[in-house]
Specification:
This protein is mainly α and 184 residues long. 54% of the residues lie in helices and 2% in strands. The protein has a single domain, classed as Hypothetical protein af1432. The chain is built from 9 helices and 2 strands; from the N terminus they run αααββαααααα. Strands 1-2 form a two-stranded antiparallel sheet.
Amino acid sequence: MKAINILNTVYADLPQVLDLLLIHGRVVGNKAIDIADRCPELSIDRDFVLEAALLHDIGIRECHAPTIGCFGTLPYVQHGVVGRRLLEERGLFRHALVCERHVAMGIDREEIHERQIPLPDRDMLPITIEEKLICFADKFFSKDKHPEQEKSTESILQGLSRYGEKQTLRFLECCKLFRYPEGA
């Protein structure tokens, strides 16, 4: 399985979005590996992390996100569910779960109901260490005008706070789990 080949196939008709996904996937993957290198006791599957980081946003093509060149009909929050479907169709079940579980800091069934989020009625929380790591590393980068610019922890927390206390608490739990910032 070559993540780049999958992206090239799925985004053959959207080269600008493909370029953005490659940049974003690489910076997220590199951040995740930097964090993993500081936590050898977690026995993180580095090859999987790099592949899954490249593929975690594959579902954006069907979502309405015109600022990044996606003109689908689905709300952006559904890109993880779409990504899961696209990767399960290719037999990449482990990678597919990363897609679904990386949105926000994961979304639980209660949040879906309370906030009336248009998602399936199930928990979509990162479970494995690799899922948690990619979800965490992803928060440091956006796909907007400056996809390679890293966000500060403070700006991430401020952004997550709009979605409720659970989101910020999950991020802080990952900060502790991954000893981030270094030495914390």
